[in-house]
């Protein structure tokens, strides 16, 4: 048995089916980077991207390299899933911002947006506005609009998807599969 099999044995029987390829992700990242660069071309304020850990770390790292203008980044850590395959609705703030957002244009970078509770309930939108950011917008790799419980305006979206539990490219199932270079759908065996 290989190491990955040993680690995932503790999870319910499942398989990961490829869904969005590495090439599709990289192509879309280049498009998002160009769009952000163009949108902030004539803006002379600092641009700060705030990645939501852990899932958005890989997305943020690739996204900032596709933006052709000066950019800063920082992280917050929020938990709403634990080891489950669906959100509990309870959000915990684990790490706050290190950098000041005052006078900066802020883009919150999230791996996936489904219910909207993570971004909204975690205080990110309102808290960043209350810290005197010049503007606050949202960039998500994946958007699941069918699951939305809180309205969130997404300015930059990688892919809109149906209600699938996905892993890879930073997203996990009980901390597994974050290192996959593509996005896969987790299918739980009955």
UniProtKB/TrEMBL annotation:
Coiled-coil parts of chain: none
Question: What CDD domains does the annotation carry?
Answer: PRTases_typeI
Under the GO molecular function aspect, what terms does this record hold?
A: guanine phosphoribosyltransferase activity; hypoxanthine phosphoribosyltransferase activity; magnesium ion binding; nucleotide binding
Record-annotated Phosphoribosyltransferase domain positions: 28-173
Reaction catalyzed:
IMP + diphosphate = hypoxanthine + 5-phospho-alpha-D-ribose 1-diphosphate; GMP + diphosphate = guanine + 5-phospho-alpha-D-ribose 1-diphosphate
Q: Where in the cell is it found?
A: Cytoplasm
Cellular component per GO? cytosol
Q: Which domain of life does the protein's organism represent?
A: Bacteria
> Which key words tag this protein in UniProt?
Cytoplasm, Glycosyltransferase, Magnesium, Metal-binding, Nucleotide-binding, Purine salvage, Transferase
Enzyme Commission numbers on file: 2.4.2.8
Alphabetized SUPFAM superfamilies for the sequence:
PRTase-like
Swiss-Prot/TrEMBL GO biological process terms: GMP salvage; guanine salvage; hypoxanthine metabolic process; IMP salvage; purine ribonucleoside salvage
InterPro entries, per database record: HGPRT, Hxn_phspho_trans, PRTase-like, PRTase_dom
What Gene3D superfamilies does this protein's entry cite? 3.40.50.2020
Major location category of this protein: cytoplasm
- Keyword Transport present in the record's keywords: the answer is no
What cofactors does the UniProt entry give for this protein?
Mg(2+)
Q: Which is an annotated Pfam family here?
A: Pribosyltran
| Pathways per UniProt | Purine metabolism; GMP biosynthesis via salvage pathway; GMP from guanine: step 1/1; Purine metabolism; IMP biosynthesis via salvage pathway; IMP from hypoxanthine: step 1/1
For this chain, the family text in UniProt reads:
Belongs to the purine/pyrimidine phosphoribosyltransferase family.
Protein name stated in the entry? Hypoxanthine phosphoribosyltransferase
Lineage, please? Bacteria, Bacillati, Armatimonadota, Chthonomonadia, Chthonomonadales
